[in-house]
Structures are given as structure tokens and as C-alpha cells.
From TrEMBL:
CDD domains per UniProt: F-box_AtFBW1-like (cd22157)
SUPFAM superfamilies: F-box domain
Pfam families with a match to the protein in the record: F-box (PF00646)
Domain F-box stretches: 5-51
Naturally occurring in which organism (per UniProt): Helianthus annuus (Common sunflower)
PROSITE patterns recorded: FBOX
InterPro entries linked: F-box-assoc_interact_dom, F-box-like_dom_sf, F-box_dom, SCF_F-box_component
Protein name according to UniProt: F-box domain-containing protein
């Protein structure tokens, strides 16, 4: 006769908690159905915060692309097996309504998308956790100027920053469910004007703005892009001829006064068959991911993603086996995220 014994029957609950803390995200979602006590534990804000900050989580590269006029997403596990293990995450119904959605940023397992929903006739922001298949939709008031997204490391409260004018901004916190005005109060360096090309930072904890000073060695500030590499801000400085891109990284992440350090230069000279190329993100190990648009057979254009190895100055095609045949005006968007439980206990979140 087979007898099943529950862990709760012979292990103290305090020890159960320590064991559950070490369980991966996707298993925790399933464990919520074991008992009311386990569900209450896993859904608690304290447990979610601890699991998000203290436990090592699996990294993913999320890729958005267009195929036959349909927007698709694919998540690639970013470990030693990269890019063999990939899957199509379940996208929220609201995100599917967005026309040409932009990936604003990702933070602590949450991905922020923004776009216009023609069916609803309004601009929407979707904060999405691909790991637990939950999302929150937020209506974007008035016209979009500039957006930023992040999770406060102290409170674990997701925040959206919207700059509306030169000196005015709005902040949306998920806990309050409302927009509020904040003053930028920028202490700008001598000679600064808002017609200049400058980078503006926002402290998620203190909610203070700052100006990131650019070195004189950074050429042609009109061709700057920003990205994230190993949780640090990086600045991509393309030259005027578009044959190279210098990657700069902030030495002290979050400190506007810290200088940018030159990491390496990506040379596009080897991509002689490319019609178009740019850096669209970085892997967990810091290697840049390059999007290339090349001429294909039959008049089609083939867009590929390639991992660039700075030390070897070559690249490996992510899509060697299945290149995407897409339209000339199609493009990739990428962001990195880690698995987390954020949004699990949010009352307005939608499971899908």
C-alpha cells in the first residue's frame, strides 16, 4: 500500500519557508495550489521582495520582431546554452492591441511596453511579467514626450517617469495607481541648454533628477543611444559614417556625476553585405547583440540578430538555422529580464 505524506505533516513550517525560498519562480506559482498556508506565504509582499532580491534568478533575452505583419515575441534563456533554449511567452491581450509597441525598459523581471491601441483609441503602457504571465495596463495621458521605467530597489514599487515639458515631469507608481507631478529641479552644468544633447537621470528612491555629464571625447552627441549592460547604464556613440560604435559605461551606476568609461568599439567594417546595422542590446555576459539587415534571395530582406565578441571582433548569428524573412521596414527590439514574482499579488494585474 502506497502512503503519501505531505511535507507539512512532518517538517516545521519555519523550515518549509526556508526551503520554499530557494524554489524557482515557475515552480512557486504552481506551489500556491498546494495549501492555503503556502499560497498566503508566496503571495506575501515580504516573500516576493526577498525572493526577487536575494535569490539568483534565471536570465532571459526577450526579442520582439515582426513576421508576416504579425508582432511576435520570443524569450531566449541566457546561459551557457544560449541561444538553443527559447520559447514564445504568453503575451497579455492588451499588449496584443498595441500597434508597433516599444520596449521602454525592463527591471526586476518586469518589462514595460508602450504603444497606441487603435481599438481603444488611446495610448497605453503595459507592465508585463513574462515569467508568471501577469500584466498591468496603464493609460498614458495626453501626448507622449519621454518615458522611463524601473522598480524602486527599496520598496520594490514599479515606477514610470514621464517628462512632459522642459522642467516638468510626472511619476506613476503602481502602488498608488495614479500619476502625480514632480519638479525636475535640475542643477545643470555651466553652458547647458535644453537644445544641447544631454542625458537626464532619475533616482527611483529619492525621485530626483540629474544631468549626466558627457566627456569631450564623446564625438557627435546627435548619434547617441542609451542601453543597459550588466545592470549599468551604457551610452552607444555611433560615428557619422556609421562604420563603428563606441560603447561607454557609467562607472558608478546611478550617480550622475560619475564619468563614462570607454569599454570597446564595435566595428561594422566586416558587415560589408549589410544594408543596415545597429546594437539593440547586450547579453548577460556583456556581449553586444547586433541587428543586421541584408539583401536576400527573391528581393526579400533578411534581418538577423548576431552576438558580437569584442575580443575576437566577429559575430555569431542567433538565427543561423531559422533566419526571419521580414519586411524592409521591420526591426527587432530586445531587452533582458530575470524571472521574478513581481505583480503576483497586485490586485489590478491580469493573468493570461
Amino acid at each position: 500500500m502506497k502512503i503519501q505524506v505531505k511535507m507539512s505533516d512532518n517538517i516545521p513550517f519555519e523550515l518549509q519557508v526556508e526551503i520554499i525560498k530557494r524554489v524557482p519562480v515557475k515552480s512557486l506559482v504552481q506551489f500556491r495550489s498546494v495549501s492555503k498556508q503556502w499560497k498566503s506565504l508566496i503571495d506575501s509582499s515580504e516573500f516576493i521582495t526577498h525572493h526577487t532580491l536575494k535569490q539568483s534568478q534565471l536570465h532571459h533575452l526577450l526579442v520582439r520582431y515582426t513576421k508576416r505583419s504579425e508582432i511576435k515575441y520570443i524569450s531566449i534563456v541566457d546561459d551557457d546554452s544560449f541561444p538553443r533554449h527559447k520559447f514564445s511567452p504568453t503575451v497579455s491581450p492588451t499588449a496584443k492591441l498595441l500597434t508597433h509597441p516599444r520596449m521602454i525598459a525592463s527591471s526586476h523581471g518586469l518589462v514595460c511596453l508602450c504603444g497606441f491601441a487603435y481599438d481603444l483609441k488611446k495610448h497605453l503602457i503595459v507592465v508585463w511579467n513574462p515569467s508568471i504571465r501577469k500584466s498591468v495596463e496603464i493609460e498614458l495621458p495626453n501626448k507622449l514626450n519621454a518615458l522611463g521605467f524601473g522598480v524602486c530597489p527599496k520598496t520594490m514599487d514599479p515606477k514610470i517617469v514621464r517628462i512632459t515639458r522642459r522642467t516638468n515631469a510626472q511619476v506613476y507608481t503602481l502602488s498608488s495607481g495614479a500619476w502625480r507631478r514632480v519638479s525636475m529641479n535640475l542643477r545643470v552644468p555651466p553652458g547647458f541648454t535644453f537644445c544641447s544633447y544631454q542625458l537626464i537621470s532619475f533616482d527611483l528612491t529619492n525621485e530626483e533628477f540629474g544631468v549626466i555629464e558627457l566627456q569631450d571625447s564623446i564625438e557627435d552627441p546627435e548619434h547617441l543611444c542609451i542601453s543597459k549592460r550588466k545592470e549599468s547604464l551604457v551610452v552607444l556613440n555611433y560615428d557619422k559614417s556609421d562604420v563603428a560604435c563606441v560603447v561607454w559605461m557609467m562607472t558608478k551606476n546611478g550617480d550622475p556625476k560619475s564619468l563614462l568609461t570607454k569599454l570597446f568599439t564595435v566595428s561594422f567594417n566586416a558587415f560589408h553585405d549589410s544594408v543596415y546595422h545597429k546594437i539593440v542590446g547586450f547579453r548577460k555576459n556583456g556581449e553586444p547583440i547586433i541587428e543586421r539587415l541584408c539583401s536576400g534571395d527573391g528581393g526579400f530582406r533578411v534581418t538577423t540578430l548576431e552576438v558580437y565578441e569584442p575580443c575576437m571582433e566577429n559575430s555569431n548569428d542567433l538565427w543561423t538555422n531559422t533566419p526571419f524573412m521580414i519586411k524592409c521596414d521591420s526591426f527587432f527590439m530586445t531587452t533582458s529580464y530575470t524571472e521574478s514574482l513581481l505583480l503576483l499579488n497586485h490586485p489590478d494585474s491580469i493573468i493570461h
